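The following block was generated as part of the benchmark described in Methods. Ligand: magnesium ion.
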Amino acid sequence: MPLIAVASPKGGVGKTTLTAHLAALLAAKGYRVLAMDLDPQNALRLHLGVSIRDEGGFLAHLSERGNWRQSLRHTDFGVQLLPYGAADPAEVLDIQTALAQDPGLLAEPVREMLKDPELLVLVDSPPGPSAALASLYPLIDHMLVVLLADGGSASLMPQIVSGRFMGRGSLIERLAEKSMVVINQFERGAPLPEAVLDLATKTLGHRLLGVVARDAAVMEALASKRLLTEGGRGAAEDMAVLADAFIRRTQLRRPGERRSGGFSALNEWGA
Ligand SMILES: Nc1ncnc2c1ncn2[C@@H]1O[C@H](COP(=O)(O)OP(=O)(O)OP(=O)(O)O)[C@@H](O)[C@H]1O
Ligand SMILES: [Mg+2]
């Protein structure tokens, strides 16, 4: 527990970059983090320092119903990783069809991961609707939606608040209430980004969790197999602030920290 999903109706906004940084920043603070890639681009592993030649993974072999533990990679950032794995386009379509027909194919192993009370599972997802992410909707505790400070993102904000970018119904509305938004690649002082951020504060209210600056250091770090977790200004500072805000907002507990409140009998009855 818990399950945290990073998602967006838009592509190329920084979902994978933020997933990798959040995972590494939380691990550095003493959390036990399992990062899982639901995106067939299979890129999360590259952000976490796994070799491009390592093509193993979890989702790509989902139909074989193997043990997810066998696909785990231990990264240099203290994060355990389940890469998507290499899959050709026909295989990706087969996986999507299988997941649409049987969400338990992914939900069951994830349920098993979540039984570990000290493990925090953080998933990176492909842009837009995805059968993999949809199969986890009932299990997600916190959703981090990534947007840019541009016109396209501004037009999507009402759909983020309503949850319509994920679908309809009570399950989706419940998930939308748990959604938080990050505006990434923000350029301070530029007229359009500033106007979009003003709109975001009005439309999203408390859902706006943080803002991360556009910073060439992000791309440079990826190209040299690093993450911006050592502090500094710009995006590094913003991502550290974002991780702290996320911990506070979600009341994330480190291993050994005690849970407060809740309905104790329900834990037993639901076992
Ligand atoms: N704050 C930032 N400043 C500058 N560049 C950034 C920032 N965040 C992400 N990028 C760059 O933007 C590009 C897209 O980032 P990333 O791959 O994380 O997005 P994504 O949402 O996961 O994309 P996709 O939808 O394809 O999965 C990458 O080249 C990344 O290095
Ligand atoms: Mg991505």
